[in-house]
Amino acid sequence: MMGPRAGTLLFRRGLPLAMVVEITGSDGNAADLTGCVFTSQVRDTLGTLVATLVAEVVAGAVGLVQLRCSDTSQWPLGQLWCDCDVSWPNGVTTPTEVWMITLRQGVTRTGAPG
Prior knowledge:
Blueprint: E1 8-12, E2 17-22, E3 37-44, E4 49-57, E5 64-69, E6 78-87, E7 93-95, E8 99-104
Parallel strand pairs: 1-8
Antiparallel strand pairs: 2-5, 3-4, 3-6, 4-5, 6-7, 6-8
């Protein structure tokens, strides 16, 4: 199992979040995800749930799942943790590796002086 290709994702609070996760089989190749169900969450460093992400197979791609959340405006700043559980058609559930998201506040304020 894999996660995002980058180690730590740097992200700005308030923007929609979307990332692609690669799911590999035991042979290291992209896995056939036909019939799989995905569950993905973001949690803070204390383990408190921040968000449950929408997870969908990327159409036309083997082994890729897109994780997304339309509203991150209330997410806490700092270190967050994410993974994705894959429930296979045979009933087995396996997790991806855990990865870190560093959430930062934006700097530029359009229309706001100083």
